[in-house]
UniProtKB/TrEMBL annotation:
It comes from Aliivibrio fischeri SR5. This is Transcription activator effector binding protein. It comes from the Bacteria. Residues 1-148 form the AraC effector-binding domain. InterPro entries: AraC_E-bd, Cass2, Reg_factor_effector_dom_sf, YobU-like_regulator. Pfam families: Cass2.
Amino acid sequence: MEMVQVESFIVQGLHIRTCNELEMNPDTAKIPQHVQFVDSNVGIDYKSGARAYSVYYNYESDVTEDFDILMGSNEVSSSEVALTSVEIVAGQYLKFESEGEFPEAVINAWKSVWAYFSSSNCEHIRSYSTDFEHYENANKVSVYIALK
């Protein structure tokens, strides 16, 4: 984990509204199906430098309530459906990295996030503005958590 300064940028993609309670149960989880839908309908030209992101935003309050998740890219090359845009809020973020097979690498990164923020040693407060996953390559993801 490291503290980083993130400049504002736009991510375009497709969004859903969900909550962690739904996502913890394979029978009610929305994200896996949404990943497949995004992969089938949003073109990302990785060769030109575009990168894939998942942005968590519009938090109802905190990790216990509903939030939106938008999956897409900073540069969409094509889309079969209308896209939504979200702006990553500029500011300080904690960056958690994980490598390995997907989706386990993403799950492991979030386990690190949850462990840190539920720890009695946690020195930071989440802002619940925009958090995001940056898929750096086929085996590496970084999760950025916005801080107050």
